Amino acid sequence: MKLKQRIFFLTAAIAFVLDFIYIIVQRTLSSGGAPEGDIFHTFLVLIMLLSLGYAYFRLSSDHENSAVQLIGRTVIAITIYLLIIGIVQLSAMTDFQSIRGVVQPASYSTLVVAAVISGIGAIASVIVFASLTRLIFVKRRQKTKRNFIILLVLGGLTIIFEFLGSPNGVGLGGISALSGILLAITIMMMIVNAFRFSWILSLTRREKIINLLLSLVGFVFFIILSIYASGNEALNKSLLYYHPMLQQFVELCFIFGAIYMGIGFTSTLLHLPTAKEFDRKQVELSSLQNMSRLITQVFDFDELVATTTHLALEVSEGDAAWLELLSDEALTRPLAGNAKSGTTGDAVRSRETTILRNSLKNIDPESIAKLRRNDGSPLQSLAFETANPVLIQDFHGDRRVSAEARSLRDIGTLLIAPLSRHGEIIGLLCVTKRKAYEFDRDIMNVLYAFADMVSVALENSSLIRESIQKERMVRELQVAHEMQRSLLPQDLPSSPRFEIAAHSIPAYEVGGDYYDVLSFDDNRLGLLVGDVSGKGVSAALYMAQVKGIFQSLSGVSASTRDILIRMNGPLCNGMERKSFISLLYAVLHTEEGLLTFARAGHCPLLHVRDNRAAYLRPEGMALGLDPTPRFAESLEEETLRLAANDIVVMYSDGVTETRDRNDEEFEYQRLADCVLEHRDHSAQEILTSILERVQNFSGKQEADDDVTVLVLRWKNTL
Amino acid sequence: MSEFSVGVRQRDTISVLDLRGYLDAHTAPELEKAFQTELEGDRYNIVVNFSELSYISSAGLGVLMQFIEDVRSNDGDIKLSNMSSRVYNVFDLLGFPMLYEIFDQEDDAVKKFLNKSENLS
């Protein structure tokens, strides 16, 4: 409650208390004289009523209440008030006397009671008035406000005229007739205003029943209270004595209440038969909205499936529902049968569907498994055969249903709606009801429309899943690519005696080629170029393995042959049978300019001196082929004494086997020619021109195989 | 890019696989399947005729490696024949001639198998 409202409530209370003291004092002083007509008293009553009304209006308009809640509040207020009045009435605590038509309490106790029930009456009337006003303005139309203002003016006039005419008020005798006419017109205007009941339509069936009861109770209580307030009763006398204006206000409020509740009761009663239908339309409408949400909710397949059956039940008011999907395999298998030739038979029946566990609503898979025809085939396959929805209106009396299936007591009506994609059935949506003949045409149509939406949603979901998977694979390949790059040496050593340049271009994101350059402390330099059979991620993993084994073994022996022999064992064990690795391993003795090398099935080493090129090819088979000593027997080691400006090129078969458009290979000769042409250039320049020439030769942007080249240029300027 | 295909002939107790076209990582599974069929039929004497094969990659060689152990443990063998020099170079470079018997002519390979079985009986 806000401060302003509190102040007004407080003002009303103070006014009431002040007035109470005032009328007691007045009565004592005038020994039976009436307070009515007293300006001060009227002023205090008005202050009380107006501040109470204002505070309550402000308070109640702060909260958004439903129409039924407002009706309920009104009924509670008058019920309480009626109880109080009833007690007063029955216990006969009041004793009024009438002097020249002026009603007066005969005792102080009566005065107190009259003041109290007048005060409470004022509160009750304000609550009633405020609630009715808000009800009238629910779904207001253009004339609503005008009609209401007319009512307010008429009501105000009636109150004033009653005050002028009543013996307890000013007592102008001739005015009574006029106030009677005004009252009649006011009541008519009340009826006009009370026909504001459009809010009843949008109530649910349950709310309508509650409203019916409330308005009936309200109507009866208001009638009783109106009679008490206007007739020759304690309430009427108390109010009249307290103030004729208050009496008139209370009376009008109660009459208005009775009229509103009466009309409310009648129209609720009239709307009740259609309430169920209305509820269903309402549900359909909201379900259709939910269904469109379904289409966007495709990121979690399980959740989508669960929502689907949940909504299906909501739409159809069904009792159980589930989804079945054909397996991917069944989807790709063509239908052998043909509906027209009558041989639909086994091809269709053998289409195995999977019940989606998350979709099960109020039914278990065991029960679904019982849904069979007399020939033992699943009942659901009816939908596949006809490619249409299947509706079994009387499950227990239908000849298509097997005797065993009929033992399922919980199924009275069964609807099977096919889910289709590009005209082909991919699954089924099944909905059941406990009683037979429960699905009418409307529900079926809604369910079919729903099934179409479900198909689209399922399709979207699987598409999204695919694209997410693809995305993930691309990302993983990227990671593999980065990892592979990091396996290659980042910095190549150089000295005044030699230059080294190397580069590897994988054909795909990851390749099987590998090169490495290792500096040993005692003036030796290890140079390695290798090629793992196959391509892609497995080749890349083996390449990492080779690097690990090579790096751990390379320091063990000075002999290149020895290192390769030692590598063969672990590689034979650690790889698939069909994989193998070719390696060319050379060690450069930088002091003497000696190059010893061994070749395990790899491309021969190219040696260029002056204008002569030679391919050196010591024997040796690839690693991982043969775990027996035969490998060692096959392996030879060669030594080359380098002269100044000698060039050595190590490479992978991606270089020599690169093809041009005519399917011709790059071959050894072109490689040798290229190096010869550039033999006066730096190692880096030779490397670049080889790669360029290979690229130009293939004429394609992307290579078919990994291309790796390592160039060593021996300068020996010392 | 030319296609790849495998034809299977029976010569006596020997299966001859005729390879045609371009054998690389993409087409290797087809050769794999052919070998599998032979092994499932307990035919372990196999000659692979390369006369119509224009290219073989390391993945193609891998298929031979995949089955050789199985074949030999069943007293069989995979013998190779009729290689073009281009294809032979690939085999040679990798050291395969040390692992497989390679013949110029298919008949020689078949004869070798037949001789062996005669010797045994």
Largest sheet report of chain B: 5 strands, mixed
Instruction: Name the chain pair with the biggest interface and residue counts per chain.
Output: A-B, 28 and 18 residues
Order of helices and strands of chain B: EEHEHEHEH
**What structural class results from the helix and strand content of chain B?**
alpha/beta
Low-confidence stretches of chain A: 332-349
Q: Overall mean pLDDT score of chain B?
A: 90
* End-to-end CA span of chain A: 99 Å
By DSSP, the count of extended strands of chain B is 5
Would you count the extended β strands of chain A for me? 17
Helix content of chain B: 40-55%
Estimated radius of gyration of chain A: 50 Å
> For the report, how would you describe the main beta sheet of chain A?
5 strands, antiparallel
Oligomer: heterodimer
Query: Distance between the terminal alpha carbons of chain B, to the nearest Å?
Result: 47 Å
Q: Quickly give the structural class of chain A.
A: alpha+beta
Low-confidence parts of chain B: none
Shape of chain B: globular
The number of helices of chain B is: 4
| Beta-strand content estimate of chain B | 25-35%
The helix count of chain A comes to 21
Output the keywords:
heterodimer; A: 718 residues; alpha+beta; 5-stranded antiparallel β-sheet; 21 helices; 17 strands; B: 121 residues; alpha/beta; 5-stranded mixed β-sheet; 4 helices
Textual characterization of the structure:
The complex is a heterodimer of chains A (718) and B (121). Chain A has 718 residues and is an alpha+beta fold. Chain A has helices at 3-30, 39-61, 67-91, 108-136, 142-165, 175-194, 205-230, 234-242, 244-296, 301-316, 328-332, 345-349, 365-369, 381-386, 441-487, 536-553, 560-574, 630-634, 653-656, 667-677, 683-698; strands at 96-99, 102-105, 320-326, 353-355, 390-392, 413-421, 424-433, 498-505, 513-520, 524-532, 581-589, 594-600, 605-609, 612-616, 637-641, 646-651, 707-714. In chain A, helix 3 packs parallel to helix 7 (205-230). The radius of gyration of chain A is 50 Å and the shape is elongated. Chain B has 121 residues and is an alpha/beta fold. Chain B has helices at 28-40, 58-73, 85-94, 106-120, and strands spanning 4-11, 14-23, 45-56, 77-81, 102-103. In chain B, strands 1-2-3-4-5 form a 5-stranded mixed β-sheet, with helices on both faces. In chain B, helix 1 links the parallel strand 2 and strand 3 (45-56). In chain B, helix 1 (28-40) packs parallel to helix 2 (58-73). Chain B is globular, with a radius of gyration of 13 Å. The termini of chain B are far apart. In chain B, 40% of the residues are buried. Classes of the chains: A alpha+beta (718), B alpha/beta (121). The A-B interface holds A 531, 533-536, 576-580, 582, 600-604, 619-622, 625-626, 630, 634, 653, 663, 665, 705 and B 25, 54, 57-59, 61-63, 65-66, 69, 86, 93-96, 98-99.
